[in-house]
Design brief:
This protein is about 50% helix and about 15% strand. The protein is an alpha/beta fold. Helix 12 links the parallel strand 11 and strand 12. The longest helix has about 45 residues. It binds phosphoenolpyruvate and magnesium ion (MG). Its EC number is 2.7.3.9.
C-alpha cells in the first residue's frame, strides 16, 4: 500500500467509523456498516467481524462482506481455524496462503474456498478478547506492517464501538420490551378481555392497528398531515418539448437551482444536526455535479427528449439499479436518487420545494419520506412520522433519529387507512401505528408518552447538571479521547473537558512521524473542540502493546518493562521536542495542559522540565505565541511513583492516576494476559491504598489529582474513589452519564464511609462482595 494510502486508510476509516457510531442505532447495523466500509477501504474481497460469546470459547460470525450471507451466525471454537488462533494468541495472524497454514480450517457455510490470504486482528474490551476483525483476499496478498498497523487501529476502535452499540442495543431492547407489553395490554383492552374501570373498551368505527418498522424510538399521538409528492412523471407526461437548445438551457438552470437548494439543505441540517447528518446532502450534491449523471441526461435531451422526461428516465434507471441491490444500505440509496430527481424536476417547474407549512403539531404520513422533505420541515411541529416505504437505512430514517422524532416506516396500507381527519398513534419503539385509536389505546399511549418524556428529560437534564453529591461535593467528569470524532461523542455525554487525550492515535493513523505542523493542527482542533474547557494532552505513550508501523521497535522479552512511553520519548528527544513544540503552538487555542506518562520519579520530571523550557525558548525566539503557563502534570502508574508521590507532587501542577497500568505494575500482572486475569484486580488492597496515598499527597500539597484509568467508568468504583479523596475522573465518554447519576445520588459522607470500610479490609474478594452489596443498596 503506498504511504499516502496507508495514512488515508487509517485516518479516514477511523473518522468514518466514528460517524457510523452516531448514525447506527443497533449493533447489527453498526457491524454491517463497518465491514462494508473496511472492505472497501482495504480493497479486500472479504471483511468479517466475529464476536466472542460469553463462554469465552466460542466465536460467532456477526457481520461479513464477501462471505456467504447464510454464514452469518455460524460459530467456531477458539481452538479451531485461523480466526480462533487470533483469539488464542491474542495477536495478529497474517498469511498469504491460508489453506497451507497448519491451523487452517474450512467452514463449508462460508463458501470461502476461493480465499487465499488472511489477516486476523483481535480486539479487546478492557483486557478481555472481544472479537476478531478478519480481512481476506482471493489473491496471495502479503499484508505490510503498515496495513497491519492500520487494521489494528481500526480493530481497536471497533472494540469501543461494539461496547457502545451493545449498551445502546440493550437500552433499546428494554424500550421495546416495555412497548411490547404496553401493546399487549392495549390488545387485550381492545378485545374486551381487559376492561377499564369495568367499562368495555369502546372501539372507534374506522380504527386500524398497523405494523411497520420502528426506525426512531418514542411515541406520538396527534392529528396528521399527509404529504403528497407530485409524481415526477406527471410533468413528464404533460411535457411540451421545446427546441433542443432551450431544453438544454432549462436543464442547466434547473440543475444549478437544485444544487443551490441542496447546499441550503446541507447548511440547514448542519446547523440543526451534525456535519455527519448534513453529509447526506453533500452526497446529493456530488451526484448533482457528477459528469456521468449530467452527460446521460444531456444526451437524452440532445436525442430529442424534453428535460423532464430525460431527467426522469435517467433517475429511474438509477433508482431501479439501486433498488435491485442486495445490500439493504445501498438499496435505500434509491430514495436519495428519487429525491435528487424530484429536486431537479421541481426546479424545472419553477417550484422551490414542497415545503409543508404546519400550523400546529402534526404526525407526517406519507408514501415515502425523502431527506429533503424532512430537511425543509418545521421540525418543532413534526411530532411523529409514519410512511409506507423505507427502512432503517433510509437517510430520512437516520435524520429522524438524529432529530429525535418518533417514526415508523414500511407500514403497508397506511395511506388507505389514514384520512385528513384521522388521529394517529406512532409507536417508534414497537413499530406500531394505530389509526383512529379507541379510548383505551389513546390513554395507554398518553401514559407511555408521559413516561418516555420524563425519561428523556431526566437524561437531558443530567447532561447539563453538575456531578454534585446531595451534600454538595462537586466532581469533575472529563472524557478520555483519541480521535477528533471523539470530541462529538464526548459532548454528547456531557464531558466537562478532556482528562486524557491519547496522542498515540494521530501517530498510529499515519505512515510516518507526523510533523510539528501536522501535530499542532490536530491538537488545535481538539482544543477548539472544547472551548473554555480543560484538555490534558498526554505525550506519546508507545511501546508495550502499542506500536507504530514505521517506527522500528526492538524485540523485547518484556515489552511492558521495556523501552516504553516516557523512556522512549526521553531517549528520542527529537520526537519529544517536536511533540512539545506542537502542543505548545496549539496551546494558544484553549485551556491546554501537558501530561507525561509512566513517570517513575523526580529525576525524569526535572529532565522533561529542562527540555520543555528549551523548547519554549526556541518558540519565543521564533516569535510563536503559546501559553507560557501551560499546566504540567504527570501520570501516576508505577509503584515507584506512589512511593515518592510526596516528592513528585511538589514538582508538578497536577497528577493523574493511570490505574490500567498501576494495577499491572503493582501486582506484576500483564494487563493483556488472560492467564493472569484473576490477579489483575483493581480491588486489591495494595491498589486502593496506593490511590489513597496519591489523593492524600495531592491534597496535602494543594494540587489536583484525577484518575483516568478504566476503573472510574463503573459507578460504584467512582463512589469508592470519591470516598478515597478523588474529585476528578476522566473516563470513556459513554460512561459519564452513569457515573454522574451515581455521584448525584450518593452523598460524600456515604462515599467516605464506603472508602473507610474498604481501606480497612484485607482481601480483594471481601472488598468486591462489600461493594456489590453497597451497589445494590444504593440502587446503582
Ligand atoms: C492507564 O494506564 O490507566 C491509562 C489511562 O493509560 P493507558 O491505558 O493509555 O496506558
Ligand atoms: Mg497507562
Amino acid at each position: 500500500m503506498p504511504e499516502e494510502a496507508g495514512e488515508q486508510l487509517g485516518l479516514r476509516t477511523l473518522e468514518d467509523i466514528s460517524a457510523l457510531i452516531l448514525q447506527s442505532h443497533d449493533l447489527q447495523e453498526t457491524l454491517d456498516n463497518i465491514v462494508n466500509l473496511v472492505a472497501k477501504r482495504m480493497s479486500s474481497d472479504v471483511c468479517s467481524i466475529y464476536l466472542l460469546e460469553e463462554d469465552g470459547e466460542t466465536l460467532r460470525l456477526h457481520a461479513t462482506r464477501g462471505l456467504s450471507r447464510l454464514s452469518v451466525g455460524i460459530t467456531m471454537k477458539i481452538s479451531e481455524g485461523l480466526t480462533g488462533l487470533v483469539v488464542e494468541q491474542r495477536g495478529v495472524v497474517a498469511t498469504d496462503n491460508a489453506p497451507r497454514h497448519p491451523r487452517y480450517k474450512y467452514f463449508r457455510k462460508t463458501k470461502e474456498e476461493k480465499v487465499l490470504s488472511f489477516l486476523g486482528v483481535p480486539f479487546f474490551e478492557r483486557d478481555t478478547p472481544m472479537g476478531v476483525l478478519v480481512i481476506q483476499n482471493r489473491e496471495a496478498r502479503t499484508f505490510t506492517p503498515q496495513e497491519i498497523s492500520a487494521v489494528s487501529t481500526i480493530a481497536w476502535q471497533i472494540s469501543s464501538i461494539v461496547s457502545n452499540a451493545k449498551l445502546l442495543d440493550s437500552v433499546r431492547k428494554k424500550e421495546e420490551e416495555r412497548a411490547f407489553f404496553a401493546a399487549e395490554v392495549d390488545r387485550l383492552k381492545k378485545s374486551g378481555v381487559l376492561k377499564e374501570g369495568g367499562r368495555p373498551a369502546r372501539k372507534s368505527p374506522s380504527s386500524a392497528a398497523l405494523t411497520g418498522i420502528g426506525i426512531s424510538p418514542g411515541f406520538a399521538l396527534g392529528k396528521v398531515s399527509i404529504l403528497h409528492h407530485r409524481g415526477p412523471t406527471e410533468e413528464a407526461v404533460l411535457e411540451r418539448v421545446r427546441p433542443r437548445a432551450e431544453e438544454l438551457n432549462m436543464f442547466q438552470q434547473a440543475l444549478e437551482k437544485a444544487r443551490i437548494h441542496t447546499i441550503y439543505m446541507e447548511k440547514r441540517m448542519g446547523e440543526i444536526l451534525s456535519e455527519a447528518d448534513a453529509a447526506i446532502f453533500h452526497s446529493h450534491l456530488m451526484i448533482l455535479e457528477d459528469r456521468g449523471f449530467i452527460a446521460k441526461i444531456t444526451a437524452l435531451i440532445e436525442d430529442g427528449l424534453g428535460a423532464h422526461r430525460a431527467v426522469n428516465q435517467v433517475v429511474e434507471a438509477y433508482v431501479s439499479a439501486f433498488a435491485r441491490m442486495e445490500d439493504p444500505y445501498l438499496r435505500e440509496r434509491s430514495a436519495d436518487m428519487e429525491d435528487i430527481g424530484r429536486r431537479i424536476c421541481d426546479a424545472l417547474n419553477g417550484h422551490s420545494s414542497h415545503r409543508e407549512r404546519l400550523r400546529e403539531e402534526r404526525i407526517i404520513v406519507a408514501r415515502e419520506l425523502l431527506p429533503s422533505d424532512l430537511a425543509i420541515m418545521d421540525h418543532g411541529k413534526v411530532i411523529g412520522i409514519a410512511t409506507e416505504k423505507g427502512n432503517q437505512n433510509a437517510h430520512s430514517a437516520i435524520m429522524a433519529r438524529a432529530l429525535g422524532i418518533p417514526a415508523v416506516f414500511g407500514v403497508e396500507g397506511l395511506l388507505q387507512q389514514v384520512g385528513v381527519r384521522s388521529e394517529v398513534v406512532v409507536d417508534g419503539n414497537s413499530g406500531c401505528v394505530y389509526v383512529n385509536p379507541d379510548h383505551s389505546v389513546k390513554q395507554e399511549y398518553v401514559r407511555l408518552q408521559g413516561e418516555f418524556d420524563q425519561k428523556q428529560r431526566a437524561l437531558e437534564e443530567i447532561r447539563d447538571l453538575p456531578a454534585c453529591t446531595p451534600d454538595g461535593c462537586t466532581v469533575s467528569l472529563l472524557a478520555n479521547i483519541g480521535l477528533l470524532s471523539d470530541i462529538k461523542v464526548a459532548h454528547l455525554h456531557g464531558a466537562e473537558g478532556v482528562g486524557l487525550y491519547r496522542t498515540e492515535f494521530p501517530f498510529m493513523t499515519r505512515s510516518s512521524l507526523p510533523t510539528r505542523q501536522v501535530q499542532a493542527s490536530v491538537y488545535r482542533k481538539v482544543l477548539e473542540g472544547f472551548p473554555d474547557l480543560p484538555v490534558h494532552i498526554r505525550t506519546l505513550d508507545i511501546g508495550g502493546d502499542k506500536g507504530l508501523s514505521y517506527f522500528p521497535h526492538p524485540k523485547e522479552d518484556n515489552p511492558f518493562l521495556g523501552w516504553r512511553s516516557m523512556r522512549l520519548s526521553l531517549d528520542r528527544e527529537d520526537i519529544l521536542r517536536e511533540q512539545l513544540a506542537a502542543i505548545l503552538i496549539a496551546s494558544a487555542s484553549g485551556k491546554c495542559h501537558l501530561m507525561f506518562p509512566m513517570i517513575s520519579g523526580v529525576d525524569e520530571v526535572r529532565r522533561i522540565k529542562a527540555i520543555l523550557s528549551q523548547v519554549k525558548d526556541e518558540l519565543t525566539r521564533e516569535g510563536r505565541s503559546f501559553d507560557p503557563e501551560i499546566g504540567f502534570g504527570v501520570m501516576v502508574e508505577l509503584p515507584a511513583a506512589i512511593l515518592v508521590i510526596d516528592m513528585l507532587v511538589k514538582e508538578v501542577d497536577y497528577v493523574s492516576i493511570g490505574t490500567n497500568d498501576l494495577i499491572q505494575y503493582t501486582l506484576a500482572c500483564d494487563r493483556n494476559n488472560p492467564r493472569v486475569k484473576k490477579w489483575y484486580d483493581p480491588y486489591h488492597p495494595a491498589v486502593l491504598h496506593s490511590i489513597k496515598k496519591v489523593a492524600d499527597a495531592a491534597a496535602g500539597a494543594g494540587k489536583p489529582a484525577s484518575l483516568c484509568g478504566e476503573m472510574a467508568g463503573e459507578p460504584i468504583n467512582a463512589v469508592l474513589l470519591m470516598g478515597l479523596g478523588l474529585r476528578c475522573f476522566s473516563l470513556s465518554a459513554p460512561n459519564i452519564p452513569r457515573v454522574k447519576e451515581a455521584v448525584r445520588r450518593v452523598s460524600l459522607q456515604k462515599a467516605r464511609e464506603i472508602g473507610d470500610r474498604v481501606l480497612a479490609m484485607e482481601s480483594a474478594q471481601s472488598i468486591r462482595e462489600y461493594l456489590e452489596a453497597a451497589q445494590r443498596e444504593l440502587g446503582l
